[in-house]
């Protein structure tokens, strides 16, 4: 997926809040919920929620992405859990 | 910074505005991720199966270099270091 780095923001945005499987150039696979794709480096931020609370965050650099496959769509609850992990509390009302 | 321009096909003004809005939201989220990572122990996976760990300090705006502290390498601990992002496959941390 060499064109991953050259995709448009609206194409990357489709992956936000979705559960995906990212395959890297060294043929490793990582699964998680997409918090964002950096439009500058095309890096994917994957979040795995831990049972004990908190989360594990894995960022795959854009140049190392070979393929991204959507496994499952996220709902509003996932979207707000992702947001509350990273956003300061006062910001939440302003992001739709 | 070098924010890459949209690729050709999008000439419609409405589309461009929407594109900028999405780009800024994606970017803000990524910057929030970097803020969350500041001061944390981060595992870096580099090419050629090298794994190192360090305390993340800062990134430049183009995501070309990361400044880290106490970089634990197979050859010992480096007090301060810059990691080139082009050498990395991925990095991870607990939040």
TrEMBL record, chain A:
<keyword id="KW-0508">mRNA splicing</keyword>
<dbReference type="GO" id="GO:0097504">
    <property type="term" value="C:Gemini of Cajal bodies"/>
</dbReference>
<protein>
    <recommendedName>
        <fullName>Gem-associated protein 6</fullName>
    </recommendedName>
</protein>
<dbReference type="GO" id="GO:0000245">
    <property type="term" value="P:spliceosomal complex assembly"/>
</dbReference>
<comment type="subunit">
    <text>Part of the core SMN complex that contains SMN1, GEMIN2/SIP1, DDX20/GEMIN3, GEMIN4, GEMIN5, GEMIN6, GEMIN7, GEMIN8 and STRAP/UNRIP. Part of the SMN-Sm complex that contains SMN1, GEMIN2/SIP1, DDX20/GEMIN3, GEMIN4, GEMIN5, GEMIN6, GEMIN7, GEMIN8, STRAP/UNRIP and the Sm proteins SNRPB, SNRPD1, SNRPD2, SNRPD3, SNRPE, SNRPF and SNRPG. Interacts with GEMIN7; the interaction is direct. Interacts with GEMIN8; the interaction is direct. Interacts with SNRPB, SNRPD2, SNRPD3 and SNRPE; the interaction is direct.</text>
</comment>
<keyword id="KW-0963">Cytoplasm</keyword>
<comment type="function">
    <text>The SMN complex catalyzes the assembly of small nuclear ribonucleoproteins (snRNPs), the building blocks of the spliceosome, and thereby plays an important role in the splicing of cellular pre-mRNAs. Most spliceosomal snRNPs contain a common set of Sm proteins SNRPB, SNRPD1, SNRPD2, SNRPD3, SNRPE, SNRPF and SNRPG that assemble in a heptameric protein ring on the Sm site of the small nuclear RNA to form the core snRNP (Sm core).</text>
</comment>
<keyword id="KW-0507">mRNA processing</keyword>
<dbReference type="GO" id="GO:0032797">
    <property type="term" value="C:SMN complex"/>
</dbReference>
<keyword id="KW-0597">Phosphoprotein</keyword>
<keyword id="KW-0539">Nucleus</keyword>
<dbReference type="GO" id="GO:0000387">
    <property type="term" value="P:spliceosomal snRNP assembly"/>
</dbReference>
């Amino acid at each position: 997926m060499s064109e991953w780095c050259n995709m448009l923001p609206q194409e990357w945005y489709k992956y936000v809040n979705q559960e995906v499987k990212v395959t890297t150039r060294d043929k490793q696979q990582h699964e998680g919920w997409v918090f964002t794709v950096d439009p500058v480096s095309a890096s994917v931020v994957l979040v795995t929620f831990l049972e004990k609370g908190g989360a594990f965050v894995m960022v795959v650099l854009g140049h190392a992405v070979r393929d991204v496959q959507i496994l499952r769509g996220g709902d509003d609850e996932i979207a707000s859990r992702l947001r509350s992990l990273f956003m300061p509390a006062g910001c939440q009302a302003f992001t739709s | 910074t070098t924010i890459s321009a949209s690729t050709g096909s999008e000439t419609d003004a409405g589309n461009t505005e929407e594109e900028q809005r999405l780009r800024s939201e994606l970017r803000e989220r990524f910057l929030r991720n970097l803020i969350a990572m500041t001061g944390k122990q981060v595992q870096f996976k580099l090419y050629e199966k090298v794994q190192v760990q360090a305390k993340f300090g800062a990134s430049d705006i183009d995501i070309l270099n990361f400044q880290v502290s106490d970089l634990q390498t197979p050859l010992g601990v480096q007090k301060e270091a810059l990691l080139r992002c082009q050498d990395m496959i991925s990095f991870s941390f607990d939040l």
